[in-house]
Amino acid sequence: MRILFAGTPPMAVPSLEKLAHQTDVIAVLTAPDQPAGRGRSPCPSAVKEAGLALHIPVLTPSTLDEASRADVRSLAPDLLVVVAYGKIFRRSFLDIFPRGGINLHPSLLPRFRGPSPITAAILAGDDETGVTVQELAMRFDTGDILGQVRYPLDGNETTGSLTGALAEIGAELLLTVVGRIASGQPLEPTPQVEADATYCQLVRKEDGILDWRDPAVLVERKVRAYDPWPRARTTLRGDSLLLLKTRVHPDTLGDAAHRPVPGEVLAADEENGILVQTGEGILRIERLQMQFRKPLDWRPFLHGHPDLAGAHLGA
Q1: Helix, strand, coil percentages for the chain (3-state, nearest 5)
Q2: Helix and strand element counts for the chain (H, E)
Q3: Between the CA atoms of 166, 169, 173 and 179, what dihedral angle is there, to the nearest 10 degrees?
Q4: Is 281 left (phi over 0), alpha (psi -120 to 50) or beta?
Q5: Torsional sign, CA 18, 23, 28, 29
Q6: How far apart are CA 311 and CA 266, in angstroms?
Q7: Predicted confidence band of residue 62 (pLDDT cuts 50, 70, 90)
Q8: CA geometry: angle at 22 spanning 21 and 23, to 5°?
Q9: Chain mean position to CA 71
Q10: Residue 166: DSSP 8-state
Q11: pLDDT band for position 39 (cuts 50, 70, 90)
Q12: What is the distance between the alpha carbons of residues 209 and 189, in angstroms, rounded to a whole number?
């Protein structure tokens, strides 16, 4: 069975590598090179680099127009396998594949349809997530389910670490489903329950700006959810401050006469660490980074900011 693999980011690479070593991947479809770095030089996608390393032909059309469809049709593919390609396929493209198309999505569909399901699971405080292989459908992430694997969450995951874990689990599931399709085994697709569907949106840079009126538990989730991008950030005396690791402080602090406001640094010393008042509860900052400085744990950070207690973070 001849497979066209479509994907773009690093998360798709484990799936491509497993399929390339155990099936017939005839070509890779990925996004065109994008400007990156200070020099804004064209940079290939992670999937393009992996495809070239595997000596697989790589297609990088900017649009899936008639010329692009002709290029794909000339390869005589049987099945389209998609992992985070980033574009919706029209019926005229899907009709090229006699065995149809399947997609790996990093959530337990129909929960968190959309472009940022891993970040969404962390923000929601879910105690589990997973991966789903679904049939490609004309509406995004609505195809019948061909396989799912659940993955427990312990509340310490970042989007970066969870993406890596789900990429590996998803690659194994994808390989299993492709094997069943190739061997002609019955797939028994399961329709998604529309009433259970939830959705997530594309993460924007401004999403990382913290609102100290939020509860401490939500601020802590944002720190993990926006790692590695766009990073949870606030300001300290007008300068940008990234929060890299935090946890909810279990105790109260201060005296009844003082009513702290959200964003106020309640303590910044060797005994308490860096404690910040939120809209509900206290957040302990364990690792942070000032603009244009290197990341620091809280103790060395305090050496350079001995007067941090009483300061206000954010606007």
Answers
A1: 30, 30, 40
A2: 8, 15
A3: 130
A4: left
A5: negative
A6: 8
A7: very high
A8: 105
A9: 31
A10: H
A11: confident
A12: 41
- Cα 81 vs. chain centroid, distance in angstroms? 19
Whether 207 and 225 have beta carbons less than 8 Å apart is answered as no
Q: Are 310 and 301 in contact (CB under 8 A)?
A: no
Nearest to 301 by CA among 220, 221, 244: 244
HSE-CB at 38 with a 13 A cutoff on CA atoms is 0
Sequence-distant (≥ 6) Cβ neighbours of residue 65 within 8 angstroms: none
Q: What is the pTM of this model?
A: 0.95
pLDDT in tens, 81-130: 999 998 889 999 999 999 999 999 999 999 999 999 999 999 999 999 99
Q: Which amino acid is it at 291?
A: Q
DSSP letter, residue 31: P
- Can you tell me the distance from the alpha carbon of 218 to that of 290, in angstroms, rounded to the nearest whole number? 22
Q: Mean pLDDT over all residues of the chain?
A: 95
Q: What is the dihedral of CA 179, 185, 188, 189, to 10 degrees?
A: 30
Beta bridge partners of 232: 243
Q: Supply φ then ψ for residue 169, to 5 degrees.
A: -65, -40
The rounded distance, in Å, linking the Cα atoms of 254 and 261 is: 12
Distance CA 131, CA 148 (A): 6
Helix H or strand E segment including 165: helix 159-183
Nearest Cα residue to 201 out of 112, 138, 103, 278: 112
Question: Which of these, 281, 243, 279, lies nearest to 262 by C-alpha position?
Answer: 279
Residue 197 burial by Cβ neighbours in a 10 Å radius (0-12, 13-18, 19+): middle
Nearest one of 270, 265, 273 to 309, comparing CA atoms: 265
CA-based nearest residue to 116, from 225, 6, 242? 225
Among all chains, which residue has been given the structure tokens 């569907």?
197
* Tokens, residue 146: 């061909």
Question: Is there a contact between 196 and 109 (Cβ–Cβ < 8 Å)?
Answer: no
